[in-house]
Amino acid sequence: MKKYVDVILPLPLPKYFTYSLPDECAEEVEIGCRVIVPFGRKKFYTAIVRNVHYCAPTEYEVKEISALLDASPILLPTQFKFWEWLADYYLCTQGDVYKAALPSGLKLESETIVEYNPDFEADTPLSEREQRILDLLSVDSQQCVTKLEKESDMKNILTVIKSLLDKEAIFVKEELRRTYKPKTEARVRLAGSADEKRLHILFDILSRAPKQLALLMKYVECSGILGRETPKEVSKKELLQRAGVSPSILNGLVEKKIFEIYFHEVGRLNQQVKDVVELNALNEFQQRAHDEVIQSFQEKNVCLLYGVTSSGKTEVYIHLIEETIRQGKQVLYLLPEIALTTQITERLQRVFGSRLGIYHSKFPDAERVEIWRKQLGEKGYDIILGVRSSVFLPFRDLGLVIVDEEHENTYKQQDPAPRYHARNAAIVLAAMYGAKTLLGTATPSIETWQNATSGKYGFVQLKERYKEIQLPEIIPVDIKELHRKRRMVGQFSPLLIQYMKEALEQKEQVILFQNRRGFAPMVECRTCGWVPKCKNCDVSLTYHKGINQLTCHYCGYTYQLPKSCPACEGTELVNRGFGTEKIEDDIKVLFPEAAVARMDLDTTRTRAAYEKIIADFEQGKTDILIGTQMVSKGLDFDHVSIVGILNADTMLNYPDFRSYERAFQLMAQVAGRAGRKNKRGRVVLQTKSIEHPIIHQVIGNNYEEMVDGQLAERQMFHYPPYYRLVYVYLKNHNESLLDQMAAVMADKLRMVFGNRVLGPDKPPVARIQTLFIKKIVLKIEQNAPMGRARELLQRIQKEMLEDERYKSLIVYYDVDPM
After folding, report:
1. What is the Cα–Cα distance from 69 to 163, expressed in whole angstroms?
2. Short-list 705, 709, 703, 631, CA closest to 461
3. 437 or 579, which is more confident
4. CA 529 → CA 461, 562, 573, distances in Å?
5. Please, which residues have CB within 8 angstroms of residue 795's CB and are 6 or more apart in sequence?
6. Among 77-81, 225-229, 259-263, 356-360, which range has the highest average pLDDT?
7. Is the peptide bond before 73 cis (omega within 30 degrees of 0)?
8. pLDDT at residue 460 above 50?
């Protein structure tokens, strides 16, 4: 009997595709293995086996799979169930989920670009086919798979590419090799031999250069070079610090050929086993919260831990993790931001050492593939710490999921599909494993609050800050009035400047928060009011001074700044608004002595950049940290006494039903960064709308008042948590055709859903990457059967696309949009 497999392709196809199995691998194929399959004309993809059966499809001619890549499955059965739920709930295809779930190194296709690894040394002889590929790559080190296939005249080339990838002879280009450099440290050693006789000669030579002599003596002491066979390694940084001399003294010794400097690689996946410390004991409030969480898990699968900023929620998590691991189960610990993982990693490593795995997109792909493979084995990590994509990792036996800062909107994926929310997905994933989920935050999202107070989730409060630190004092400043009286210094009120000055004099640190990156959000011609716009999107361009270019923050396109206005030829182009880059410039003028750092999307392109900014601030090398919302997310710094929120209004004046809730969360979280051990912090809240009720709620840290007001409004206007939202987006290159299609689709939806349909409307940005966009909003009662709504939506979409006139329409959905 001929065997067939149904596979999931990494393409947005609504159903599985069936291929026949060649006899030689018919016995070895299992569900969850990867196979290489031809699809379309001359294209090859890595697909995942979903079923193995004997029934030949009749509608289309069956092709044969080209190769089997895995001896054992790389997906576990629960993951398939999870993928099905994601595709179903978020109205996308399993191919979309597959693309999002797997690291690039596990999904090769004809378009993949491979790159030769210049450091590769073979341990075993390579096969003739492998050698042929490497020869081609040695001529041109980066090529796409299709081109290599043509030039080598080989069939089934993806299997050869895979074996070279496993040997690390090549890299997949999506890894962007240039962002992955091994972490190195500069070290110092003596040039030439190091016996006593030679050292005495060197001491004599340097007798007239006391500082150089002192440095040499310090090296002898640090390295223990006289008493040992092999001297201890000495880092350049440590040597200069301990000898208390400037780098130029060391360079003098290097020129005299006495010292040489070399670089030593410090690992990434920390292989070295650190000494693991005991858990910290919990204080009485933490202990009570911990016990209540365990109590609530007896009856409910999900629990909200509502604890004020710096109440020590992480300590409670660590104890729960430890207890879960002791039962032999695994833990998934989700964080909203990569910046946070770098800080919490150290706290967890101190306790759990090598049982902790870290997973996020700033890791090079090879490392993510390694973690994935390790998770499949019996010896997977006990704890995975990661951002939203870690919900896709394989788990053998998940016992607990922690979603820290559960209110963060970065848990929601915006583009491409699946547009999932990691918190909601994690709750479902945990349920599939029979595991428990703990949501932690100081400012819960309104939906979670509703679930917790209505009894659907467990609810535990932790109201005392750790070591009785007081909540910061929040001082509102009316900048509208100050602007009118011309008393503002750039973006800073006199009060903020005075507090910053005092903090710097007392060697304390300052955080400034501004929710816009770049130098100026808008450039405008003073004469005629012309504003440069992107040619692909309907947005004005942001000026970035560092690269002296205008950039579109939607499609990434960059433009030269014009010398004169193209409309009226006036030469006065002025900057409007201000981003983090402009604030950095202004601060350097106001406080030339202070060390300033900026943390936003532009300065944190790589993982090392994140780690450096945070480490420098923790160690006090930076005095003032300027940042976008990245700085608000649960980072703990001990010496921050002043936090400045430069303009609260940009958060409030946003056309979105969540802007009020989000502004409260952001301000409360940013404020929570102020004041730590033994000193009350201060937050200067600059705003033009000083009378706005939210300002008083933030000052009083009155979350419940904010929630009550918001819930009443949302019930009245049919918004979550009382109604479910689905946004239907339609896109097309032709604007008038799109208007027509959107109107037709909205009518079809109204026939089924009645007045639950709003629109079609233009979203705030109505054209992105040359595609025009229309949006239809669907509001469905919370208790309505979602499955039925889904069927209706998909039926209407199918009707639309089957119409000849509307074939070019692109439709996608955003379920529970943020």
Report:
1. 9
2. 703
3. 437
4. 53, 14, 9
5. none
6. 77-81
7. no
8. yes
pLDDT band at 268 (very low <50, low <70, confident <90, very high): very low
Furthest-apart CA atoms within the chain: distance in Å: 97
Amino acid, single-letter form, for residue 46: T
pLDDT band at 265 (very low <50, low <70, confident <90, very high): low
The answer to whether the beta carbons of residues 67 and 35 sit under 8 Å apart is yes
| Tokens encoding 42 | 């001359």
In order, the DSSP letters of 182-196 are -EEEEEEEESS---H
Q: What's the pTM? A: 0.81
CB 554 within 8 A of CB 590: no
Looking only at the bridges linking them, the beta strands covering 522-525 and 573-576 are antiparallel
Q: What percent of the chain shows pLDDT beyond 70?
A: 95
Write the DSSP symbol of residue 311.
Answer: S
Which positions ≥6 away from 306 have C-beta within 8 Å? 441, 442, 444, 452, 459, 460, 461, 462
Radius of gyration of the chain (CA): 30
**In the structure encoding, which two tokens stand for residue 761, read together?**
């409307």
The gap from C-alpha 63 to its chain's centroid, in whole angstroms, comes to 39
Nearest to 814 by CA among 689, 720, 695: 720
Alpha-carbon distances, residue 479 vs 12, 23, 55 (angstroms): 50, 76, 73
Distances (CA, A) of 514 to 309, 502, 597: 20, 21, 13
CA distance linking residue 673 with residue 624, whole number of Å? 13
Q: Compute the C-alpha angle 7/13/15, nearest 5°.
A: 55
The kind and range of the H/E element at 742 are: helix 735-753
Give 183's strand partners: 266
Q: What pLDDT, on the 0 to 100 scale, is given for residue 631?
A: 77
Task: Tell me the residue type at 442.
Answer: A
Residue 166: both structure tokens together:
């496993």
What six digits make up the tokens of 38?
């031809």
- Please tell me the least confidently modeled range out of 259-263, 360-364, 584-588: 360-364
- Model pLDDT for residues 193-247, shown as the tens digit of each residue: 777 888 888 888 888 888 898 888 888 888 888 776 677 888 888 888 888 888 8
CB atoms within 10 A of CB 36: 21
Dihedral of the alpha carbons of 623, 625, 631, 636, in degrees to the nearest 10? -10
Q: 612: Cβ–Cβ under 8 A, 6 or more apart, which residues?
A: none
Pairing of strands 723-732, 509-513: unpaired
Cα–Cα distance for residue pair 471/631, rounded to 1 Å: 18
Mean pLDDT score of the chain, rounded to an integer?
89
